[in-house]
């Protein structure tokens, strides 16, 4: 694994990010997490790095929520005109993130048990976070349980912000997610 790891660049591509030191730390944490969960080939690690680079520029982050009215109607097709008026440009207007995502991911608008969220407050608590923007109470519980199966105790349900605040927790969850979503029987060297 260390021989494979030495062939993977740990610096982000030139001019790809503004926070190169933090991004490099994220890349290293993601590679280490891959080893921890059994993603050992260069192809597997680079697949995760590509996804994390696109989702978060290799720096754990909170899901954004600053949509223009037009973009909001595209992303949230269920939004009424009243919803758009209330929630468009929410971040710029100072609307709390939890309030926006309680609306966007809660069962009142999205249906019973959407992403495992049983209350609107769950939507506001379990919005996208981390390297891969893990979203929904069911996913937070699933990857908490998978980490525990590896002997790693994390508490995403009671401390969802750990996906943003703790680079190693975020990296582990990202690696577990990729491992979980890779179809059984996939050649680990395929690219």
In words, what does this structure look like?
It contains 11 helices and 2 strands, in the order αααβαααααβααα. The chain has 191 residues and is mainly α. Strands 1-2 form a two-stranded antiparallel sheet. α2 crosses α3 and α2 crosses α11 (167-181).
Short overview:
This protein has 191 residues and is mainly α. It has helices spanning 2-5, 20-37, 42-56, 69-75, 81-87, 97-105, 107-110, 120-125, 137-149, 162-165, 167-181; strands spanning 61-62, 129-130. The chain contains eleven helices and two strands.
Most strands sheet = 2 strands, antiparallel
Mean of pLDDT: 93
Helix content: 40-55%
- H/E series: HHHEHHHHHEHHH
Can you list the strand order of the major beta sheet?
1-2
Number of strands: 2
Q: What's the tally of helices?
A: 11
Instruction: Give the end-to-end Cα distance, rounded to a whole number of Å.
Output: 18 Å
Q: Poorly predicted ranges (pLDDT <50, ≥5 residues)?
A: none
Q: Determine Rg (CA atoms, Å).
A: 18 Å
Beta-strand level of the residues, as a percent range? under 5%
| Class computed from helices, strands and strand pairing | mainly alpha
Shape: globular
């Amino acid at each position: 694994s260390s021989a494979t790891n030495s062939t993977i660049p740990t610096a982000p591509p030139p001019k790809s990010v503004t926070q190169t030191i933090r991004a490099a730390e994220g890349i290293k944490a993601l590679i280490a997490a891959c080893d921890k969960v059994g993603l050992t080939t260069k192809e597997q690690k680079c697949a995760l790095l590509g996804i994390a680079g696109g989702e978060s520029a290799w720096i754990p982050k909170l899901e954004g929520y600053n949509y223009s009215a037009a973009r909001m109607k595209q992303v949230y097709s269920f939004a009424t005109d009243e919803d758009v008026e209330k929630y468009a440009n929410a971040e710029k207007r100072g609307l709390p993130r939890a309030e926006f995502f309680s609306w966007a991911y809660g069962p009142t608008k999205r249906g019973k048990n959407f992403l495992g969220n049983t209350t609107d407050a769950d939507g506001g608590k379990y919005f996208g976070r981390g390297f891969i923007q893990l979203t929904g109470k069911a996913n937070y519980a699933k990857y908490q349980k998978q980490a525990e199966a590896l002997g790693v105790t994390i508490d995403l349900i009671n401390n969802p912000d750990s996906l943003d605040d703790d680079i190693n927790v975020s990296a582990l969850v990202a690696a577990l997610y990729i491992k979980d979503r890779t179809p059984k029987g996939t050649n680990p060297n395929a690219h």
